[in-house]
Amino acid sequence: MEYYFSATLHTDFDDAVAKITEALKTEGFGVLTEIEQLKILHWSRSRKKLQRS
Question: Is 24 helix (H, G, I), strand (E, B) or coil?
């Protein structure tokens, strides 16, 4: 069984994050952490290169 909500925002990424964060605040929720995926990928790749050396 699949159950989910989805929405399409016609805006740029940074504006979408700001809008979602604000909407969560109005409902009593918040963002605990933000993960910068690009930094994680670079870190992971460089770590693998070091392990191979």
Answer: helix
Residue 8 lies in a domain: no
Helix (H) or strand (E) run with residue 41 in it: helix 37-52
Give the Cα separation of 12 and 49 in Å (integer).
34
- 34: in domain: yes
Q: Please check whether residue 7 lies inside any domain of the structure.
A: no
User: Is the distance from CB of 40 to CB of 46 less than 8 angstroms?
Assistant: no
Residue 24 lies in a domain: yes
pTM of the model: 0.54
Tell me the pLDDT of the chain (53 aa) as tens digits. 899 999 898 999 899 999 999 999 999 999 888 888 888 888 888 877 777 76
